[in-house]
Every structure is written in structure tokens, then in C-alpha cells.
Amino acid sequence: MKRNVGNVDRVIRLVLGIAAIAVGVAAGGSGPIIGGIVGAMLIGTALTGRCMAYVPFGINTCSAKERSQA
Asked: What 3-state class would DSSP assign to 70?
């Protein structure tokens, strides 16, 4: 499967994923579960460079140079 998440998008997802987990833990209650799920999804897409939600819409934030490195 080809990458469809560019480097800038990946960094943003990684930061937001960590923030979602932190906010979830701080919120208490069911926050850690929700924050953990959202954070894990964001971090997972950042690490793999693939976002399944982009596929049906044909979104690709990779530059041609980034795609050739994958």
C-alpha cells in the first residue's frame, strides 16, 4: 500500500496523538480510553504514513519526492 500522508501531516498527527493521550489521561473517567484510541490511531497513521480515511476521497498529502522514498 502506498503512502498517502506527507511528512508535515505525519508530524502534526504525531503531536496531536500524544496530546490526545495526555488530555485523556488528565480528564479521568472514560477519558483515558477515548484519548488512547484517538491517540493510537493518529500515532499509527503518523508512523506508517498511510491513512485509510484519505483513500475514498483520493487525498494524498505526499509530495512526489516523498512518494519515491517510500
From this structure: coil
